[in-house]
Specification:
By secondary structure, this protein is α+β, with helices and mostly antiparallel strands. The protein contains 22 helices and 20 strands. Helices cover 43% and strands 18% of the residues. The longest helix has 34 residues, at 469-502.
Length: 737
């Protein structure tokens, strides 16, 4: 009968038992890892009875067997390899010797053991004051000073000192079937003795040991020396102090319970996931779990469930606990080990967010009127900010937390985080445009509206220079907000006066303003009401264009700069947007111009009308040589499609080009309309342009033929074929007519 395996050795992997014809024998056999055969047995060690559980740790093997009196006999063997493993069958043998033996006196333990696990022993700390250590230090100093010494040790060329083997484990953990987790002392010598278990927790389903395999812990909360449990009270963490396993261990933090000093939401999985283990590799600690999702298989028409891995970062709770204990250096080391890894920025954000929420959030300790708890929460927030400041992600982390919290919590955050205007300026100087833009609302709220507007101007110009048009559109709407709010206030006053004067429920102006606010994403849509009719008949509802796209009275008008809310911006900003559009049009950068128009609602039709009427020679509305303009525009569209993040972005760009084409046709901008319609294969627009203009159609055919030939000459056969097919299609349509 098999007794179950106990893996962990580098050359042995399995324990088993056998039964002969006369009596049942329980034998512990060890094999080489790469050759599990009866011919390669390294060791046979007979056991008194069948083991109920086994555990391996390095060169140590724990075997638990029941006794006749109902107790549990636990033996720790040290396994030693004799000789060299030169082949599948070895050339070597193994021997075992018991190094720990205890008996657990419990009549009910037999048959109720779920799992046993050896705990690594704490490595001895070097004593720098011992005579041996002092002699070693003196020898090292002497060798370091002997630069010309021929000894290899003086040059650091000698072999490194052989590390001492890990000490014999002194404890093991036992999980019962009923969920009781116990810590058991293995004694200090090879003699047999009685021992008692110390119950750690009840209701435990799983436990993991993350300790050992390295130097001694550098503080009392070193995650490298920790135990993790999962059960009725969630996931909890137990740290092994630097002095060794305590007499009465207690969880340090975790999912809850009266014995937990501090609860951590990061350690809680949702109800659909089940934790499977703890990963502390690569400096990025995670809880690894499994969940299920709905999937469809080819073998069945019905959906099924499949297991899916899920991970939860636990770095925030580790850092929070270290900071709470005052172990700033250890927290900094743990964070630096995880820097640059996935989820590191998110971990810092969550650490800072949870600290701010505990100090100034809706359910903060400040609301409980406990001065001591309030001071402790503020100190935790200051420590979290100080730790985050050590990393280049600090500006982004702070503003991300600010944008996720209520503005009433911002003073408490930036009291420790620093001046938001300075953080915004630093982010802009570092080229972090999105981060700098996120600070604008905070600067506007905490510093002043004037400082926020000036900062927004700088970010807008930088975004235009880098062609970040999505960000430009957001900044345009942000800068237009004061004018929109002022117009909303005026409209509300007029509406109130009309209600008072007429005594009805008409609310025209408020409806117009709410429409603009919805477009800006600033307010929900109010309930609509039908306008009442007066003696003259029905009251016409004024359009959004009539009410808001015009430049306010008394403000300088900038021709060619309108569309959306652009007309209510300051004159210098409107000129900046118009000049940028002119630069794009002069370079025939069709893709960039379409993106700029789409994101900012810039009225390209009014812009081209202004260029044709006010600028000598037609300005940017004239393209000059058609083949050169067609080639430049085609190259622009190709570049933007290649940089697109996928088909949705390509589709959005093409939709923007089509919308811009409609405005150019309506504005009478023939040259731009002709180039854009050619590249987008808008035959209907080309027919409209060529209607009654045979000479224009003839010139277009010749020019397209030249463009196709030039494309073939430079190896762009796809573009050449596209132009030839379009030319043939237009020629066929003209013949039909």
């Amino acid at each position: 009968r098999g007794t179950g395996g106990g893996g962990g050795g580098s050359w042995f992997d399995w324990g088993g038992s056998s039964k002969d014809t006369e009596a049942e024998r329980h034998v512990l056999r060890m094999y080489p890892r790469n050759h599990l055969s009866v011919t390669s047995v390294l060791l046979e060690h007979e056991l008194a009875t069948e083991p109920v559980a086994m555990s391996a740790l390095g060169r140590f093997l724990l075997v638990a067997t029941p006794t006749d009196s109902g107790n549990l006999d636990v033996v720790v063997f040290e396994v030693a390899l004799i000789g060299e493993m030169t082949g599948p069958r070895g050339g070597g043998t193994a021997r075992v010797r018991p190094v720990r033996r205890v008996t657990l006196r419990d009549a009910n333990v037999t048959g109720r053991v779920e799992e046993l696990a050896l705990l690594p022993a704490m490595p001895p700390r070097p004593d720098s004051t011992s005579p041996t250590a002092m002699r070693a230090q003196a020898s090292a100093l002497a060798n370091r000073g002997s630069i010309g010494s021929p000894r290899s040790g003086a040059l650091g060329l000698g072999p490194p000192p052989t590390p001492s083997p890990p000490p014999v484990p002194a404890h093991f953990m036992m999980l019962r079937v009923d969920g009781t987790l116990s810590l058991i002392d293995l004694g200090s010598d090879e003699s047999e003795g009685w021992t008692l278990e110390r119950v750690l927790a009840d209701g435990v389903e799983r436990f993991w040991i993350a300790s050992g395999g390295g130097p001694a812990p550098n503080c009392d909360a070193d995650v490298r020396w920790s135990w993790w449990t999962y059960g009725r009270e969630g996931t909890r963490v137990w740290y092994v102090p630097a002095t060794g396993v305590p007499t009465f261990p207690a969880p340090s933090h975790g999912g809850g319970g009266d014995s937990v000093a501090f609860a951590d939401p990061e350690l809680e999985f949702d109800k659909e996931a089940y934790p499977l283990g703890i990963s502390l590799c690569d400096g990025c600690p995670l809880i690894v779990g499994a969940t299920q999702r709905l999937a469809f298989a080819s073998c069945s028409d019905q959906p099924c469930f499949e297991p899916t891995p899920k991970v939860q970062p636990i770095l925030p709770c580790i850092l929070r606990h270290l900071l709470r204990l005052g172990e700033t250096g250890a927290a900094r080391a743990a964070a630096r080990a995880a820097a640059g890894k996935p989820r590191f920025t998110h971990s810092l954000e969550w650490l800072l967010f949870s600290s701010l929420d505990r100090h100034a959030g809706p359910n903060s300790v400040a609301n409980k009127r406990d001065p001591d708890a309030t001071k402790e929460a503020e100190r935790a927030l200051a420590d979290a900010v100080r730790l985050c400041r050590e990393f280049p992600e600090y500006p982004d982390v702070v503003v991300s937390v600010a944008r996720k919290t209520d503005s009433r919590e911002w003073p408490a955050l930036f009291k420790h985080a620093g001046d938001p205007a300075l953080l915004q300026a630093n982010a802009l100087a570092a080229g972090q445009l999105r981060t700098a833009a996120c600070y604008l609302l905070v600067v506007d709220k905490l510093v002043s509206a004037d400082v926020g507007a000036k900062a927004a101007d700088e970010v807008l110009r930088a975004a235009l220079e880098r062609r970040r048009y999505g960000l430009v559109g957001e900044l345009v709407r942000f800068l237009a907000r004061p004018a929109v709010e002022d117009a909303a206030a005026r409209a509300a006053r007029r509406s109130a006066e009309k209600k008072k004067r007429r005594g009805d429920d008409a609310d025209e102006d408020v409806g117009i303003v709410s429409g603009l606010f919805r477009w800006l994403g600033a307010a929900p849509e109010p309930a609509k009401s039908e306008p009442a009719a007066d003696s003259a008949g029905s009251l016409p509802r004024r359009s959004l264009d009539e009410e808001f796209v015009q430049t306010p009275k008394g403000v300088e008008h900038v021709s060619g700069a309108r569309g959306g809310v652009i007309a209510v911006l300051r004159p210098d900003l409107r000129r900046t947007l118009r000049d940028h559009a002119a630069a794009l049009a002069s370079a025939v950068d069709l893709g960039a111009l379409a993106a700029f128009v789409r994101e900012t609602d810039f009225d390209v039709g009014a812009f081209f009308q202004r260029e044709m009427s006010d600028v000598q020679g037609g300005g940017a509305a004239r393209l000059g040589d058609f083949p050169r303009a067609l080639a430049a525009a085609a190259d622009s569209l190709r570049r933007h499609e290649q940089r697109a993040g996928g088909w949705p972005e390509v589709a959005a760009m093409r939709a923007g080009v089509d919308a811009m084409l409609a405005k150019m046709v309506a504005a009478g901008c023939v040259e731009w309309s002709l180039v854009t319609a050619t590249l987008t294969r808008r035959v209907d627009v080309l027919d409209e342009i060529f209607d009654g203009r045979d000479e224009v159609l003839g010139a277009w055919r010749v020019a397209v033929e030249r463009c196709a030939g030039a494309a073939n000459a430079r190896g762009d056969t796809a573009h050449a074929a596209f132009l030839q097919s379009l030319r043939e299609e237009m020629c066929g349509q003209s013949l039909k007519v």
